Q: What sequence folds into this?
């Protein structure tokens, strides 16, 4: 398994990016200023993007694993890689997500705890309703873990 930083042509991985954030103009809000990593294990299996939010906060803006390879530890391996890479450089690793039963347990398994909500984020910033597991996402849930 190899994790490498992607400096150019990040949109090559748009298919994976849209798995985590289905509206492309929302991805465009952070992709260029973000640092992108791709996990390779007999081909590309997963990616993530992190941004410097100031005040010692590193934010995980996007993380996705190829659907047929989910549940095999690749997502957690990327989070562990981020922790090892940025420990000592930032104080907190933060992530914002919908209140979804598919993502919150993953972040909790990676050591994140619920921190705060941004009310109506998915209504105010997306041009169409976002559903996960049949439930419309409304508020953005922020989770954090110490670095
Ligand atoms: C969410 C995602 C990145 C997780 O990556 P993954 O490789 O499937 O997860 P892992 O196999 O590394 O799982 C790590 C841990 O989280 C747990 N976990 C992962 N998904 C879970 C789920 N849906 N429900 C409960 N626990 C879950 C695993 O059981 C595992 O726990 P353990 O460490 O105690 O064994 C991946 O499923 C994905 O790409 N989903 C679609 C895109 C997406 O929703 N991205 C997040 C946007 S906020």
A:
């Amino acid at each position: 398994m190899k994790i490498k930083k992607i400096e150019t042509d990040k949109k090559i991985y748009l298919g994976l990016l849209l798995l985590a954030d289905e509206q492309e103009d929302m991805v465009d809000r952070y992709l260029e200023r973000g640092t992108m990593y791709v996990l390779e294990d007999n081909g590309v299996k997963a990616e993530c993007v992190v941004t410097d939010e100031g005040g010692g906060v590193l934010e995980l803006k996007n993380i996705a694993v190829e659907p047929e390879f989910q549940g095999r530890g690749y997502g957690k391996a990327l989070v562990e890689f981020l922790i090892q890479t940025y420990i000592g450089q930032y104080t907190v690793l933060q992530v914002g997500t919908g209140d979804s039963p598919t993502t919150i347990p993953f972040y909790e398994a990676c050591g994140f705890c619920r921190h705060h909500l941004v009310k109506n984020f998915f209504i105010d910033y997306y041009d169409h309703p976002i559903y996960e597991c049949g439930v419309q996402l409304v508020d953005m849930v922020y989770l954090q873990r110490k670095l």
